Every structure is written in C-alpha cells, then in structure tokens.
Inverse folding.
C-alpha cells in the first residue's frame, strides 16, 4: 500500500491506462498474484513515477 | 521454487482480463479464469436441462467441502460451508456465552466486519477491546497487554486488508491459549498465496472465502472449527442446513449437526459452489508448483 492524498483519483487514472488497482482510506493498494509478471511490475512502477507528486513520499507520523 | 516465465504465461493465458488490462487487484477480487466461467456455465446448464437437480447440487456441495478441508489440512466434518466469512463468524459468536469470560480482544487491522460482529455481541454481555496499531504495525506485545484470564476469544486477521501487514499469529495464538482464550483466524486476505495447516497453527476456528487469492466467486466461504470445540457450541444463528439431517424436514426438531456443519444455516450458494473443481483446482495446482508440500 502506498500513501496518497488522492488515492481514489489515482485509482481512476490508473484505470484509464488499463491498470486495475484499488484504494482504502488514503492508501493505494497494489496486489500481485501468481498470474502477474515483471512486465506488470514495470508498468505500475512507470505509472507511479509519473504520479509521484500525488504520493506521500516523506515518512509521516501516523498512529496507523 | 520459482515458476518459470513460461509457466506463469500458461497460467495467465487462462485469465482473459489480461488481454485488455494489467490486473493488480487480487486483494479485492481474484481475476476470473476460464475454469470458473466454465463452472458457472455448467451450473446454468444443469438448471436448464434438469430443472431442479438438488441431489446433484448437494453432491457438488459436499465435494467442495472435501476440497476446502484438504486445502487447510482438516477433515470434512470439521469444515462448515457458509455464504460469507461474516455468516460463519456470526454463527460462532451466537454460540458463545459471555457470562464467565466476556472480553473480546481484536486489533485495529481486522477487516471491519469482524469489529461489527463482535461489537454487536455487547448486547449479549461482551466487552470488546482494541489493540492499537502504531506506525502501520501491530505487535504481540500489544495483545499481551490486553489478553487476560477474562478473555473469551481473540479474532485475528492473518494479513491487514489495508496495508498488507502480516500479523505475528503464532505468538498471539500461543499467548491466548496459555490464558485460556479461543483464537479465530481470519485468513481471507492471505488464503491462496501459501499452504495452510490449521492443525499446525493450533487454531480453534479458521475462516476464509473464495473470492480473493483462491480466484473464485463471491458468495462462498468456509470455516474450520476444532472438533472438540464444535461439539460444545450450540449456535442460535442457524437454519435447516445446520441440522443433523436437513432432509428430515422436521419443523419441531432442533438438532444441530454433530460437526462444524452445525454452523451453517440456510440453502447453500449453489452457483458459487458449482464448478468448484474448476476454480478450486487452479490455486491448488499453483500452490503445488510454488511450494513443496
């Protein structure tokens, strides 16, 4: 899970690029199973890189 | 053991979603395989062609129970088949008395339904306390502070549905048992990613369902209840499929089934069960390839 201020929006943006992920609260959930490949990993990393400004990349104090 | 690219490609080819999309949401719902689709069609055909083949459908239902039992290292009479994990846990909760031990200790990483079910037991005398998470973690020490001689049950998720944190289940189970509390493992977020042995994990109750990493449909869950515990519990959330003989059709007799089946209730979710060999065999084959049993 990756923290984002706009997790729901990211889910929509990823969907527009045919990458299916989900969100819970402020987290973007990306899960892999046996049918996923390294190419899938590369594709989602590419999308994350393009949207770095929408991720919380600094460690924040959290009680969760 | 790592699967070769060729093996992964062969598995992936059975999941049509990958023709159009990169699917990275198995934590929410496993992708639909051709096997599962064929199972649903087989169900529809049986309905079309035979009208009401309940004998056949109940055979499928019992075969699915056997598959689940093998998958988690239990015997079929220790496994209840239910329409959701919530249905199973509700039946367990309804069978517990909160008169002597009344405390339920659960962590903030539980799936919300677990909170809802146990909070609802407060009207029956339960006291619910939450172990607080810190920095995306829960520790056995956190449980250590709250589990005591007054604790009746510790419902425990294997994996947090939000952040994927893997709980220290072995430590918590040992601690709970040492203090006389029951342990209920909710494995829904992990089941299908690795082999499961409910006996080796020394669990009292284990619940999971088919819709995530088991790559099945919604509408079907299963629950193991330790044999010696099941015989002591009489659920008040029940129904005709929880009876010793559902087909006795005796309205005056309440006689819970001898094993875990007593935690079932109404007419089972036949569409979800149907074609179980198709979908259930997918993760089993994968696991056999991934891990040496």
């Amino acid at each position: 899970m990756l923290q984002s201020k706009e997790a729901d929006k990211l889910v929509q943006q990823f969907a527009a690029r045919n990458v299916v992920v989900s969100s819970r609260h402020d987290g973007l959930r990306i899960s892999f199973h046996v049918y996923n490949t390294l190419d899938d990993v590369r594709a989602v990393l590419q999308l994350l890189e393009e949207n770095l400004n929408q991720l919380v990349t600094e460690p924040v104090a959290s009680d969760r | 053991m790592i699967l070769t690219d060729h093996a992964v490609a062969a598995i992936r080819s059975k999941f049509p979603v990958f023709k159009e999309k990169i699917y990275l949401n198995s934590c929410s719902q496993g992708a639909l395989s051709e096997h599962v689709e064929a199972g649903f069609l087989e169900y529809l055909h049986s309905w079309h062609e035979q009208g009401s083949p309940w004998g056949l459908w109940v055979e499928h239902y019992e075969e699915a129970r056997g598959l689940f039992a093998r998958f988690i290292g239990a015997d079929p009479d220790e496994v209840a088949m239910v329409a959701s994990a919530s249905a199973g846990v509700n039946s367990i909760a309804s069978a517990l008395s909160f008169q002597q031990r009344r405390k339920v200790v659960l962590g903030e990483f539980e799936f919300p339904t677990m909170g809802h079910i146990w909070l609802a037991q407060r009207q029956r005398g339960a006291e619910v306390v939450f172990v607080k998470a810190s920095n995306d973690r829960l520790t056995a020490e956190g449980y250590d502070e709250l589990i005591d001689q007054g604790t009746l049950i510790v419902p425990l998720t294997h994996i947090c549905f939000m952040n994927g944190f893997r709980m220290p289940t072995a430590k918590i189970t040992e601690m709970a048992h040492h203090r006389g509390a029951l342990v209920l493992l909710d494995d829904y977020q992990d089941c299908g990613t690795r082999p499961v042995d409910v006996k080796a994990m020394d669990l009292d109750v284990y619940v999971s369902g088919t819709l995530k990493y088991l790559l099945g449909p919604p509408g079907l869950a299963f629950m193991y209840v330790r044999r010696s515990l099941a015989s002591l519990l009489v659920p008040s959330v029940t129904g005709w499929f929880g009876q010793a003989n559902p087909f006795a059709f005796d309205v005056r007799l309440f006689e819970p089934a001898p094993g875990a089946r007593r935690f079932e209730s109404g007419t089972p979710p036949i569409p979800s069960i149907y074609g179980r060999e198709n979908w259930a065999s997918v993760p089993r084959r994968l696991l056999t390839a991934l891990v040496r049993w």
Summary: The first strand of chain B starts at residue 22 and ends at 23.
